[in-house]
Design goal:
The chain has about 230 residues and is α+β, with helices and mostly antiparallel strands. It has an eight-stranded antiparallel beta sheet with strand order 1-2-3-4-8-7-6-5, covered by helices on one side. A hairpin with a 6-residue loop joins strand 2 and strand 3. Helix 1 packs across helix 3. The longest helix is centred in the first third of the chain and has 29 residues.
């Protein structure tokens, strides 16, 4: 007599659960590996702490032009740069405390863009960042009305020892006007605090997301990829 062995439903459930757990561990492992293998450098092939004079030479040697300079209280400058070669990039803001590169903000948007254009850009960049650095952390998600102005803010952050990247969507509207923006913020790694600092210190590096809402006039298909080296 032939004896057949049948797996009980309980066994099938356990095997399915095991496969699901293994799959989740594999995804987490790949995401972790992506984080380890993709350092967070500034865009356009630049490097953190690049001296301002070298950065200016690189920008002026290409298509970029500095349209505005602002001095920082602790020394250094903030530059507003236009003409950089990337689709839909309206301008970039370079933060150079102590005359060394510490942060870059890329501002996207066009007057004739629809909400769908902004949504598509947001999702495209988010997907690219997740592929490189794993899932981002939600840092802002709110909608509120202030002085008759409806404001919407959505932001994600990816952070490693080599720096951080923030992706921010901001919109503000009233019955007469509508403003939308998508921005990508590259921020250098912060130095470890000294256990016994010699005295009170203040950071001149913009805190994550600091320039997101304050930025006005940010910058259509084809949707831009993240800048590569």
């Amino acid at each position: 007599m032939e004896i057949t062995h049948r797996k009980s439903p309980g066994n099938r459930v356990r095997h399915a659960a095991s496969r699901a757990v293994l799959g989740a561990l594999l995804i987490a492992s790949l995401a972790s590996r992506a984080c380890a293998e993709c350092p967070m450098r500034p865009p356009f092939g630049l490097e953190w702490d690049k001296p301002a004079i070298e950065l200016e030479e690189a920008l002026l040697g290409g298509s970029g032009r500095i349209v505005e300079r602002k001095r920082l209280a602790g020394g250094g400058e903030t530059w507003q740069v236009e003409g950089l070669p990337q689709p839909a990039l309206q301008r970039a803001v370079f933060h150079l405390p102590k005359h060394k590169l510490a942060a870059v903000e890329l501002q996207y948007g066009k007057e004739d863009w629809t909400p769908e254009n902004y949504d598509a850009l947001m999702q495209t960049v988010k997907t690219q960042l997740e592929a490189k650095h794993g899932p981002g952390v939600l840092i802002a998600r709110k909608q509120e009305t202030e002085r008759g102005l409806l404001q919407t803010l959505l932001g994600y952050r990816w952070k490693t020892a080599s720096g951080s990247i923030e992706l921010v969507y901001f919109a503000a509207q009233n019955p007469n006007n509508l403003y939308r923006a998508v921005s990508v913020h590259y921020i250098a790694p912060m130095p470890e605090p000294s256990p016994n600092p010699p005295g009170p210190q203040s950071s001149t590096v913009p805190s994550p997301g600091q320039t997101s809402v304050a930025s006005k006039d940010l910058a259509q298909p084809p949707l831009p990829p993240l800048p590569e080296k």
